[in-house]
Write the structure tokens for this entry.
Amino acid sequence: MGDVAKDLASGTLGGAAQLIVGHPFDTIKVKLQSQPAPLPGQPPKYAGAIDAVKQTLAAEGPRGLYKGMGAPLATVAAFNALLFTVRGQMEALLRSEPGVSLTVNQQVVAGAGAGVAVSFLACPTELIKCRLQAQSALATAGPGAAVAVKYAGPMDVARHVLRSEGGMRGLFKGLVPTLSREVPGNAAMFGVYEAVKQYMAGGRDTSGLGMGSLLVAGGIGGAAFWASVYPTDVVKSVIQVDDYKNPKYKGSIDAFTKILSSEGVKGLYKGFGPAMARSVPANAACFLVVEITKASLG
């Protein structure tokens, strides 16, 4: 139970660090992903990431960049504790003998297993977050008008979905693309993280690496997550913010094909820049805090 407690504590603190550093980038990513395709001859609502930041600050102030943070903040402890605890238990199952470091391939398997577990917590959390982040991008208000607000906050989103969108089933809208993101994404992230650490350490014993090396490995691992699964995240976002009564998409495959046919491959990478800009510092902070916490707990 000592190892489980360490994983719980380190995952919780690491997730908090990741959220604080990365949420503004995530907000811009979701806004770019969820903005409607412009009519022929019309410009999109946001010309790019910088324009989305400027418009968000002008319309909503700095708080707009942290919109939707309540939902992941409320569950960040559970999410990251679950992620790192399941990964830790998977490591214990895969380890040939106590104290032996895992191979990169074993870390890939451990990451995939952790991804399955966290998907069921991530899906409703991300649905609430995406609804709050995207509502200004989806608003039909004209230039200069106040931002249309549909939801007052995370609990308001949850109440609306439970009451009007099929109850608990509504909160798990987008579960398939969430699984399709979390399983391969975490496999890539933990595998690359371990590979970079072992490369810098010159072998499987990475216990002597300093904070700088851990930051680099964590940042590259986070980048590997998004580079490997980004189109799936776009599909997840558009499905989760889709109108319940008049849906634009019938499911994940339909969303993928419609985005591809109307916007091309570029449409599947909307918001990729902010996602990658977020992933490096956010995951670097997360892994560093996780490693420091585990070391301090002995």
Q: What stands out?
A: The radius of gyration is 20 Å. The CA atoms of residues 189 and 221 lie 4 Å apart. Confidence is low (pLDDT under 50) at residues 140-149. The longest helix spans residues 104-138.
